[in-house]
Amino acid sequence: MTGHTDPGGPGQAAADSVTPDWAIASSGLTKRFRGGQLAVDDVDLAVPAGSVYGFLGPNGSGKTTTIRMLLGLAFPTSGTAELLGVKVPDGATRVLSRVGSLVEGPAFYPYLSGWENLARYDAADRFASPKTAKARIGEALERVGLSAAAKKRYRNYSLGMKQRLAIAAGLLQPRELIILDEPTNGLDPQGTREVRSLIRQIAADGITVFVSSHLLAEVEQVSSHVGVMRVGKLVFQGSLPELRRTGAARISIRTGDVEAAAKVLRKLGLADTETADGVISAGLGEMAALGDDAPEKICAELVHAGIGVRGLAVETPSLEDLFVGLTGEGFDVER
Amino acid sequence: MSSADVVTGNTGVTEATPAQMRKAVEGEAPSSVRAYARLLVSELHLVFGRRRNQLLLLVVALFPLLIGIALKVASPKGGGGGGPNGPNNGAAFFNQLAGNGVFLTFIALTMLLILVLPVVVAIVAGDSVAGEAGHGTLRYLLAVPAGRTRLLSVKYLAIVAFGAAATFIVAIVALLVGVVLFPVGPVALLSGTTVSLADGLLRVFLVTLYISAAMAAIGAIGLAISTLTEHAIGAIAALMILVVGSEVVDQVPQFASAGPYLPTHWWTMFDSLLRSPVDTTTLWHGLLSFVVYAVLFCLFAWARFTTSDVTS
Questions:
Q1: Which chain B residue lies closest to A179 (C-alpha atoms)?
Q2: Is 3.40.50.300 the CATH number for A10-244?
Q3: Number of folded domains in chain B?
Q4: The listed CATH number (3.60.150.10, 1.10.510.10, 3.30.70.100, 3.30.450.20) that belongs to domain A249-316
Q5: Core-most of A24, A41, A134, B240, by most CB within 10 Å?
Q6: In the prediction, which pLDDT does A14 show?
Q7: pTM of this prediction?
Q8: Contacts of A23 in chain B (CB under 8 A)
């Protein structure tokens, strides 16, 4: 995607690309299965164009069903969804050629080679030029490091190769959005790293990446934004710093005069103070009022009030803690 | 992605939008007709290139050969192929075979029409959508996006092509075997008149077309069943049960009034082409039956396929 030969006139650029603010936007997206089970419940996705969006949630939380609706594979019970500013599923056939996807693991014809498989998918794309097919397939295979195995039957591919072939299929065309559903499922650590670096490369080209995972650790390193699903509901959506901020950091102060310190903290608006012997802690939830340098201000106030501060620490819950807090512990007990 | 990593033009204003890159890398988008042709070729390649299907065609080709040899070996004893156990109009063909090798095509087609050709069509038709669903490739084709109606129509055309290919292979192999093993000359029709060999061959061609149409009709039923499941084998079995069931019911005198509405009822009516004058009324009835079945079940498949969630 790095080769752009013609910058094009400004007028043409405006006509060509009505860049929407949201690569993916949904409102009230709901899917109720025939059995009555609510798989996706009133989900309002807002994926900024150009972001790497980690779509998180435990298995069975409705991630894949949401992705299926975005790709026009499943029809929503109610609500709407837009990809790159085009309504789906109505406009799916128009917009999806600008969207690469990997849904629920790779799927190819076992009796065809890797190359033939990509050629098959490329032939199905009505916007794909047959003239450039050969070059595009070769480049896609090259990009995922499968050039050497291009002639090998898919049946004989290893799991990691299958996964990479699926990503190659997503890269057959220059895309504006890539949707990857659990791209590292079943991969060894080495494969996981490869996928991660691929995501970085794709994102570096300015392509929006929407990547789902049940593991926070997997997307934490690559994503700029996250959405967290829990039993069909989107329980959090925002940038990673925003997610961090939801976890109320706590400040804990080691001091000789806990009582006096508590008074100062309360005066600063920090209400939920907890005292243990020699240590007082308070949630920094209202930190916004104090600004980003709240710990410093608190320290200064304490010292100003003549309270000896022996130690001061700010404890932030890890993203993992926040994630577990949002999605609940354990297995799919809520189903 | 492009081989040219060199940024041309003035530095600083070279950041192209994805849409522009798309234009540059993708080349011209093909016309919708060409794109459709490409998908159709891909589908035909998939169906005809698959080893299993090639094996099916090979098996289908072997039958006329075996039938021809068996009849050749048996004919001196029976003094002209005296009534083997075939269906009624089959028996008439057997009597003619001794005089003309061309009749081997009608014998082979009649015999294979009972089970072998429907099985071959059922395998390809039942596999068409269900097989893709089972492999999971259906969701990727639709996400490409192939377009549901577009994909389904291509699938049906491939089924029709495969059914016709199987039928024509039977006819051609039978004709070749018949020519080699039996005398060839002007063709004596079932009605007693004799027509030229060229006229006879034309009738062979029309019979083959007629049977191809019959196969296209059950192909549509197979396609419809195939949209209901992601287990190809289930769809194949269901279609076979339907075909055999229809053939059985067609044989029961008590159900005679229902006969003309059965999907298999008109299959063997191709013998109308072997009379002079040709019984066109029967032929048109048969063709009408095939068209109605094809349209009805294609519509069913379409209604189902374009509205159901792909969950595989």
A1: B143
A2: yes
A3: 1
A4: 3.30.70.100
A5: A24
A6: 38
A7: 0.83
A8: none
